[in-house]
Each structure stands twice: as C-alpha cells, then as structure tokens.
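Support request from a user on the community tier.

User writes: "When I paste my structure tokens into the form, the page sometimes reloads and wipes my input. The last time it worked, I copied everything first. Here is what I submitted, just in case something in the input itself triggers the reload:"
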C-alpha cells in the first residue's frame, strides 16, 4: 500500500479512496492536477491494485482503512478536510471515520456501494461462492470489459482506463471473502458533513440510499445526469472540484 501526495504546499487536504479493481494512475491525474492547485491531495493505492507494488496482495476493506487511519494520524495530525471515497472507497471511508483518532470535515461517497453482502450457513456453499464469484470477477476484468462497462453505465474506454488488470486471483478472492457478512458503517455518515453521489446509471443504489435517509442516517444525496458508476471524477475535474468546494462550504442542499 502506498500514499501518493501532491500540492504539499497547501494547508487544506483532499484524501481520495479509490474503488475496487481500480488503478489511480493515470485515470485520476486530470483531477489530481486540478485539485492540487488549491489542496494537498493524497491518493491511497490499495495493496494488490498498484503498479508500484506489484507483489502486494489485497486482504480486506478494514485493513486498508486501518492503514489509512495510521497515515492520517501520522502525517496529517488526524485531520482531513475532504475525504472522497469512490465506489468501494466509500466503504473504506466509512471505516476511517468510525475511528475516533480521525476527524473529517467533509465526506463524499461517490458511487456509494450499498448492495447487500452475502452470508452463508454452509462452509461448502461459501467456498463454492468464493471460487465462482472470484472467477466471474476475473473474467469480467480481463476478457469482458465491454459487458462490465454496460453494467456500470460507462464506455469501454472509460472502464479500461480505470481498471487494474494485473490484479492477482488471490487479491480478488480475498476481496470476495472480506465482503461475506460485512456490516456497513452507515452511522459514520452522522459523524461528519456527508454527501452521497450517484450517476443516473445507478438508480437502483439510489433507491436504497433513500431508505437510509428514512432511518435517520444524515447525508445529502445528489444524482448526476448521463453519468455511470464512479465516473464523476473522470468526466469533468474542474466541475467536480467546484462541487467539492461547495460541499465543504455547506452550499449543497
């Protein structure tokens, strides 16, 4: 796991938590270049999804969150102005916020993953699920990116730019295992000024998000037209940065 920093001369911070199967470079660089003119930008590259550490293995959401917390405490004095989680990065962000050593001013979960996580009574069925689902993910990642793009409401070119195709089967299996029985930390939204962003291709997830609002979980939800899953940060860096600044100043309702 590595953290990449830009714009260290600035006081305010944006920390980016990447999505599952995603590489941060070069896809996020247009946004990083724009944001680092005003912010100290930190990007966490997860174990197993980083060209700089090809032999590392992804283990779990909670482990990546713990590594992020340790970094925030050590390098940022425990303070983050904007925590921006992309897809699975929103779940990592939830875990980060729940740690009392960290204070986050504004949390944005872009393409927030909210699908129910599986549980199994039988170990045999669980192992069949792990092997089968891991094989399906690997196939979509390497041989069927066009189908994956269609499911996510994005172009194949956009998906290809974002995916980390060198991921090992062990990292994929570990990610599937870590999701079994996983409990979302929805309560973290109540600990800071929180926003959930979804593209128009994510209406199913958006409907589930509204159920959270009815349960008293506090956040502002925004939908974006003609936008696929986790695509917002790639489409218009300047516009997104303006949106982040509005969120930071509590100007989004």
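"...and here is what came back when it finally went through:"
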């Amino acid at each position: 796991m590595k953290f990449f920093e830009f714009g260290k001369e600035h006081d305010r911070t944006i920390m980016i938590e990447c999505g599952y199967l995603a590489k941060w470079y070069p896809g996020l660089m247009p946004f990083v270049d724009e944001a680092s003119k005003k912010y100290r930008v930190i990007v966490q590259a997860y174990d197993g999804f980083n060209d700089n550490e090809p032999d590392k293995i992804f283990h779990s959401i909670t482990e990546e969150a713990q590594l992020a917390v340790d970094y925030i405490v050590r390098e940022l004095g425990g303070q983050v102005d904007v925590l921006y989680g992309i897809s699975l990065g929103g779940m990592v962000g939830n875990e980060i916020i729940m740690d009392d050593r960290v204070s986050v001013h504004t949390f944005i979960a872009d393409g927030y993953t909210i699908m129910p996580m599986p549980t199994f009574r039988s170990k045999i069925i669980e192992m069949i699920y792990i092997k089968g689902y891991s094989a399906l993910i690997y196939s979509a990642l390497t041989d069927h990116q066009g189908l994956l793009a269609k499911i996510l409401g994005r172009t194949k070119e956009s998906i290809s730019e974002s995916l980390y195709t060198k991921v090992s089967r062990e990292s994929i299996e570990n990610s599937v295992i870590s999701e079994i029985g996983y409990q979302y930390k929805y309560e973290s939204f109540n600990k800071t000024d929180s926003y959930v962003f979804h593209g128009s291709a994510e209406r199913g997830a958006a409907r589930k998000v509204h159920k959270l609002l009815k349960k008293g979980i506090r956040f502002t939800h925004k939908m974006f037209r003609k936008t696929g899953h986790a695509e917002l940060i790639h489409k218009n860096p300047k516009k997104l940065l303006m949106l982040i600044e509005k969120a930071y100043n509590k100007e989004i309702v």
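Agent notes: The reload is a front-end session timeout and is unrelated to the input. The two ends are 36 Å apart (CA to CA). The longest strand covers residues 79-86. Escalated to web team.
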